[in-house]
Amino acid sequence: MMDYESSIKHWEDINVGDVEYFSKTMTQTDLTLWVGLTGDMNPVHIDAEYGKTTRFGDVILPGLMVAGLISTVMTKATFGNVYSGQTLKFLKPVYVGDTITAVATVVEKLDEKRRVRVKTECFNQRDELVIVGEGQEYIM
To answer: Taking the CB of residue 39, how many other CB atoms lie within 10 A of it?
Structure first.
C-alpha cells in the first residue's frame, strides 16, 4: 500500500492563483485504446478516408479524450480530494501528433462548502486554446 498522506492537499494548502500543468503528445495508440475502452466508433475519430471528407480534413481526437488531461491537472492541484463538476467548451480540433498542455488555475475558494473553482484549459503545441472550462473540487 502506498503512503499518500504527505501528498494530500488540505484546505490551507490550496491558494487562489495556484497553477498546475501537464503535457502529452497524443498518439494513434492513445486513440486506439480510447476507442476500445469507450466504444466510441464515430468515423470522424477512426476512419482517415471519412476524416478527409469533413471540415477537419483528417481524423480528430474525441474531445472527452483530450479533456481527460484536465483530470490530471485537477488531481495535481487538489490531490486527494473529490472532483465535483466540470464544464467544457471545445474550441479547436486536436489531431494525432498534437502535443496538448492542460492547465488548471485555482480561481476561487468557497469557504462555506470547502469547494474550489478551477479554470481549466488545454493548449496545443502552437499555443492555441483548444478546450476551456471550469472544474470544481470539494476539499475534505
So the answer is: 7
